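Example record

The entry below shows one chain as it appears in the dataset: sequence first, then structure tokens.
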Amino acid sequence: MFRLTKEEKHEVVTNCDHLQNLKFSPVNPHVFTEHGAIMVASVLNSPKAIEVSVFVVRAFVQLRETIAGHKELARKIVQLERKLGDHDEQIMDPKPPPKTRRIGFRAE
């Protein structure tokens, strides 16, 4: 178990609508790591504690899958940025088109 920093608390409140009341709390909340939550649930020996323990494990598994999916997405974005990295510069600062000779005769 550890206490969130102000920045972490702000991020959690911003991302989780159901925690909006936490925004006005003057103290930073305590949170559990995955292993800490499982340890607490294993100490308690009631049907409800077992149900919550299973729920916590499933939530962390889903969180890991989501993070892994985002890592893959982040990796693909980085690849695209490398591939298209200079396109912004080309669009914002285009080189003038090369001068071409006009076709035809000139009358002087």
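Notes for this example: Residues 78 and 84 are 10 Å apart (CA to CA). Residues 2-92 form one domain.
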